[in-house]
């Protein structure tokens, strides 16, 4: 308790230094939260596309039902297909209307004649996608083939790049936070050098002297993590309607409250470690 009271006194006596330490910690954990949300969203988008038919063939308008049935049977007899689904022009229009039900202008512009019929194909193995896609593409009644693996591969590469960028930014901000915290705590220690010398003369051990500064660093870390988390979650909730409209049916939102609380708990642990480490390193040089 004495260590905590001493920490609070140190904070109150130098509020501007405390604000600076909290601000840099806030930036660090704001970055942690934002990149966590981006990676969560990316993984959900990838899972969504992986669960959907991986090859979609759009037919020409002159394609007959007999030709489409023949192509469907040819694909199924390869033994590499897990499922096929034919989507007629009318069904495509129904899907389109459901996806754009909040935009009357788009609904008025599109009719069933404009939308092509399609065949959705899922394979047993992703390795078979290229062969099935190539076989379908050769059919004279097929106008276009969308290769779902390409979408997943592109999203995966983006996610990997974002993960590397996020780790780099977080590591840099964490190092900056540690250096700034060491500087701030070091200034405070230098101002109390005489008090520390007196405490050592009367028999205080090193940990008795360290604890107030360590608690101070932990306080800066926890408050910075809390503020960064609150700002990021607020931004997420604010952007959710826009992002949901943009993603159009991809189940990225809502983000589970349990996940948000778990993220806050993890950030509290990391913030405590960063704050304690910074303070310990700052005090170390004065207690040698």
Concise account of the structure shown:
The chain has 288 residues and is an alpha+beta fold. The chain has two domains: 180 residues, no CATH class; 96 residues, Alpha-Beta Plaits. The protein contains ten helices and four strands, in the order H-H-E-H-E-H-H-E-H-E-H-H-H-H.
Relative helix content: over 70%
Round the Cα radius of gyration to an integer and report it: 30 Å
Largest beta-sheet details:
4 strands, antiparallel
Strand order, main sheet: write it out: 2-3-1-4
Number of helices: 10
Q: Which of globular, elongated, flat, extended, rod-shaped describes the shape?
A: elongated
Count of DSSP E strands?
A: 4
Structural class: alpha+beta
Rounded mean pLDDT score = 79
Instruction: Pick out the low-confidence regions.
Output: none
How many domain regions? Answer: 2
Order of SSEs: HHEHEHHEHEHHHH
Tell me the β content. 5-15%
Measured between the Cα atoms of the first and last residue, the distance is 25 Å
List keywords for this structure.
4 strands; alpha+beta; Alpha-Beta Plaits; 288 residues; elongated
Note down, in words, how this protein is organized.
The protein is α+β, with helices and mostly antiparallel strands and 288 residues long. The protein has two domains: 2-49 and 153-284, no CATH class; 53-148, Alpha-Beta Plaits (2-Layer Sandwich), CATH 3.30.70.3040. 73% of the residues lie in helices and 8% in strands. The chain contains ten helices and four strands; from the N terminus they run H-H-E-H-E-H-H-E-H-E-H-H-H-H. The chain has helices at residues 2-13, 15-51, 65-76, 89-99, 104-109, 129-137, 148-191, 193-201, 206-247, 257-284; strands at residues 55-59, 81-87, 118-123, 142-147. Strands 2-3-1-4 form a four-stranded antiparallel sheet. The longest helix is centred in the middle third of the chain and has 44 residues, at 148-191. The protein is elongated, with a radius of gyration of 30 Å. 24% of the residues are buried.
């Amino acid at each position: 308790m004495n260590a905590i009271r001493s920490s609070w006194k140190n904070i109150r006596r130098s509020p501007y230094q405390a604000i600076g330490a909290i601000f840099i910690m806030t930036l660090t954990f704001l970055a942690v939260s934002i990149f966590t949300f981006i990676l969560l969203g990316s993984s959900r988008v990838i899972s969504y596309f992986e669960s959907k038919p991986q090859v979609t063939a759009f037919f020409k308008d002159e394609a007959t039902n007999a030709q489409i049935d023949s192509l469907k049977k040819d694909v199924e007899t390869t033994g590499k297909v897990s499922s096929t689904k034919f989507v007629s022009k009318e069904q495509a229009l129904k899907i389109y209307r459901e996806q754009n039900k909040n935009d009357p202008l788009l609904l008025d512009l599109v009719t069933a004649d404009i939308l092509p019929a399609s065949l959705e194909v899922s394979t047993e193995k992703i390795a078979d996608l290229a062969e099935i896609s190539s076989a379908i593409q050769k059919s004279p009644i097929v106008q276009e083939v969308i290769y779902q693996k390409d979408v997943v591969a592109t999203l995966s590469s983006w996610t990997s790049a974002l993960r590397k960028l996020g780790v780099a930014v977080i590591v840099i901000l964490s190092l900056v936070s540690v250096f700034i915290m060491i500087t701030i705590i070091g200034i405070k220690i230098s101002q109390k050098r005489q008090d520390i010398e007196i405490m050592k003369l009367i028999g205080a051990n090193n940990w008795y002297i360290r604890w107030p500064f360590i608690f101070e660093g932990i306080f800066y870390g926890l408050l910075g993590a809390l503020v960064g988390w609150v700002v990021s979650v607020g931004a997420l909730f604010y952007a959710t309607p826009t992002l949901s409209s943009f993603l159009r049916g991809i189940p990225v939102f809502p983000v589970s409250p349990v996940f948000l609380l778990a993220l806050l708990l993890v950030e509290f642990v990391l913030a405590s470690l960063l704050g304690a480490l910074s303070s310990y390193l700052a005090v170390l040089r004065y207690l040698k």
